[in-house]
Structures are given as structure tokens and as C-alpha cells.
Design goal:
131 residues; alpha+beta; CBS-domain; two-stranded antiparallel sheet; 34% helix; CBS_dom_sf; Diverse_CBS-Domain; CBS domain-containing protein
């Protein structure tokens, strides 16, 4: 069995300009813990997880006065991780499980070239192992 056999499609993705509030709404509404961030052509730019949203800094302020110094946009593009695991649709599930475990990730985008065609999670791998 391969990644293409267990991946979730269609893939929901975020634009880098999506606000973190919008991203959180989509993720919680769909039950996702991680989503790919893609450009207008659907090419993978990075991954945004629930933890990335929670860690994203508020607008920086002066630590002594609390005065906001600048408003940094809280967007998916600013908070995403540019590195991470991406897998191919033809990857065998045992290899996929090993790579995900070694990388410490619970989900990974499935790509053809740089285009996201699906997402695969540990839950998908576990479910496939029982079949």
C-alpha cells in the first residue's frame, strides 16, 4: 500500500495571506492539526500547525511600557514552518511511517513535484495497517 492509497483528498490548503484566526477556524472546523500553505499555483510553501498558531507572537511591544511598536501581520505565511516532511504519492506506507516517526510529525503533505495533492496522517497509516 502506498501514500496515494491512504491520503486525504481533496486537500484543503491555506494561502500565505490567510490570517491566523482564519486558519484556526478552518483547522478546527475540519478537524485538522496541520495544513499546507500554498502559493496561487498550489505549490507548497510550508506547513502551519495548531502549535505554530499558538506560538505566533502577538504584535511586539516595548517590554517596559507595553506600547505596541509595530503591528506584524499574524498570517499563515509569517507563522508557517518552511521546512518539514513532504512525501510522494508512490511512497510505501512502511517507509512513510518510519519517516514520519523519525521527523516527529503527525501529518505530511503528499506532493507531485511541488504541488500538494493530498495529506497523510499517522491515523491514516494506523488505519491502513489494520486493513
Amino acid at each position: 500500500m502506498r501514500a496515494r492509497d491512504i491520503m486525504t483528498t481533496p486537500t484543503y490548503a491555506l494561502a500565505p495571506s490567510a490570517t491566523l484566526a482564519e486558519a484556526a477556524e478552518v483547522m478546527s472546523g475540519r478537524g485538522f492539526t496541520t495544513m499546507p500553505v500554498v502559493d496561487a499555483d498550489g505549490q507548497l510553501l510550508g506547513l502551519l500547525s495548531e502549535a505554530d498558531i499558538l506560538r505566533a507572537p502577538e504584535s511586539p511591544g516595548d517590554p517596559d511600557t507595553g506600547v505596541v511598536l509595530a503591528c506584524r501581520p499574524r498570517t499563515a505565511g509569517a507563522a508557517m514552518r518552511r521546512t518539514g516532511l513532504a512525501v510522494t504519492a508512490g511512497m510505501e506506507i512502511d517507509e512513510l511511517a518510519r519517516l514520519m516517526s523519525e521527523a516527529g510529525v503527525r501529518s505530511a503533505p503528499v506532493v507531485e513535484g511541488r504541488h500538494v495533492v493530498g495529506m497523510v496522517t499517522f491515523r491514516d497509516v494506523l488505519r491502513a495497517g489494520r486493513e
